[in-house]
Amino acid sequence: MAWEDTSLIVIVKIAGSVVSNRSVSMTRVRHAPPSNNASEHSKPAANCYLGIARFQNNGTIYSRDCSIVKMREYKIVVLGSGGVGKSALTVQFVQGIFVEKYDPTIEDSYRKQVEVDGQQCMLEILDTAGTEQFTAMRDLYMKNGQGFVLVYSITAQSTFNDLQDLREQILRVKDTDDVPMVLVGNKCDLEEERVVGKEQGSNLSRQFSCAFMETSAKAKINVNDA
Question: Which one, 16, 149, 213, 222, has least CB within 10 Å?
């Protein structure tokens, strides 16, 4: 499957797995800023429980050791300047609705069950603040994140320009150049207001060595369709 043909969350590659968009359930939660203990979040969470399975067949009771693996969790952080549509994209992906009103986000966390490499897992998607007064919290988000969605608006050049610094901050915090991320040019339904060309996005994605696509939360373009 080519990068260009995949949807917003599908192409976020984490721990060698590609997330599919076949959802099972979804919830939304709000919580306090994440812990600054990055070591707890460096790998997908999975716990294994050991026990004895007992079953009966024709009156005979059998038992054997078994293990139950807790569903893996993947933490994805959505980053970008204020007003680019981060919340609208996230809510459209998780809940299938378009939020028309702009309400500056402090931090919203969404959970959605999806399938990864044939196994059910839980996506935790952190929708972060894009306004200046909350930028100090970004280091914590970046430490805990396993994959990143960098969003700009095709109608605002400044939001595109801001992504270079955002990516550099991610690489600095993670202390590696190998960080799963995708570049997203949102609001592609507003073609008459476009100021950032699609070729600019493609060029930047090559510079970042990451996937790129243009999306529209309002028109449901490249949000859920693979």
Answer: 16
